[in-house]
Design goal:
The chain is built from 6 helices and 3 strands; from the N terminus they run H-H-E-H-H-E-E-H-H. It has about 100 residues and is mostly helical. Pfam families: HTH_24 (PF13412).
Length: about 100
């Protein structure tokens, strides 16, 4: 089960949903997060900004399309919450899109 940090507990539900989607899928673009969570683009963007400001999400370059960013849970947080699923994001990422 996912253990929530205090920063995440104090976040709005949309931020929690985006965080859980990233935790489950690994790395996603904003568009993929919009599809995955069924939240509006604006809501996902706001959630990502909140999570980034708290250090819960990192932004990276999306090699396939430089116009987009890739979002992921920092390595240290990926391993602490669900050790049995660590590294599963890479396999999921290669299967999607």
């Amino acid at each position: 089960m996912l253990e929530l940090t205090q920063e995440l507990k104090d976040s709005p539900p949309s931020s929690k949903l985006v965080y859980i989607a990233l935790k489950d899928k690994g790395e996603l673009t904003q568009n993929e997060l919009t599809d995955e969570t069924r939240l509006s683009k604006r809501t996902v963007r706001d959630a990502l900004q909140r999570l980034e400001s708290r250090g819960l999400v990192e932004e990276d370059i999306y090699i396939r399309d430089a116009r987009q960013n890739l979002y992921l849970i920092p390595e240290s947080d990926r391993n602490t919450c669900e050790p049995d699923r660590a590294g599963s994001g890479d396999a999921t990422r290669s299967e999607s899109h």
